[in-house]
Amino acid sequence: MSRRLILPPESAPLSETVASRTKVVAKDIEVFYGDKRAINNISLTINENEVTALIGPSGCGKSTFLRCLNRMNDTIPGCRITGSVRLDGEDIYADLDPVQLRARVGMVFQKPNPFPKSIYDNVAFGPRIHGLIDHPDDLDGIVQRSLTRAGLYEEVKDRLREPGTGLSGGQQQRLCIARAIAIDPEVILMDEPCSALDPIATARVEELIEELRNDYTIVIVTHSMQQAARVSQRTAFFHLGDLIEVGNTEDIFTSPREALTQGYITGRFG
Ligand SMILES: Nc1ncnc2c1ncn2[C@@H]1O[C@H](COP(=O)(O)OP(=O)(O)OP(=O)(O)O)[C@@H](O)[C@H]1O
């Protein structure tokens, strides 16, 4: 049984991407933690204004791969990456400063992690440090627009000066999404954004992901195959550090090409 990447060569058109523009191209990515290789020569193309889901059993390298896309692995001691990641053609490891890069490629984490600041200041933080405001009044507009875009404004508009940590888990996660979009990124990485949320809060975040893809390119790591099927247009299945299969989400869940994928989606392992 093949475990190797089954992507067609870079030049071959992928049927599921015909109408889509390429946003990110990861090529020949290998990641090592010390001597241990966690990602084995993975190449993956991410399309603009689509949600790409990364699925696979625990420890298969989904989060490690996701973190390569905004150089978050750079902060992990002993972690080494080879290969290239291009964002709109620019090599993010060679041509872009990590701070600039993370303004273009935002991230939402598994556990909602609002800063110990007010709701307003959580959202205003990024625009302030990235110098995105010419006039203090502009900030009010950015905060309101970001909270509205994250589907949270109506719930918090009367308590913007109260701590973000006082919100419910689902609201905190939407606050983190508002914080991510306040700096107007192009790509949003989400690492199991709903795993700490109840089903209602999860449904709200999933609706939000569907809306956000009109404006952003989204890559989401999820343990839930139902979630991948609901929110994504493309799905990539990882196993033991390999990318086994990538394709149109519907195809992956109805007629996967690889036996390993089939085994995982039918619950035979994982
Ligand atoms: N900071 C680290 N130091 C050493 N090894 C690590 C580190 N982070 C991850 N690994 C190892 O790299 C491999 C891939 O881990 P990763 O967290 O990327 O997988 P995952 O598919 O996201 O897992 P999960 O679904 O459980 O979150 C695993 O073997 C893991 O133990």
TrEMBL record:
Location of the ABC transporter domain: 24-265
Cellular-component GO terms for this entry: membrane
Pfam families in UniProt: ABC_tran
CDD domains: ABC_PstB_phosphate_transporter
Molecular function terms from GO: ATP binding; ATP hydrolysis activity; phosphate transmembrane transporter activity
Domain of life: Bacteria
Entry keywords, A to Z: ATP-binding, Nucleotide-binding, Phosphate transport, Transport
Cross-referenced SMART domains: AAA
GO biological process: phosphate ion transmembrane transport
Protein name: Phosphate ABC transporter ATP-binding protein
Organism the protein comes from: Telmatospirillum siberiense
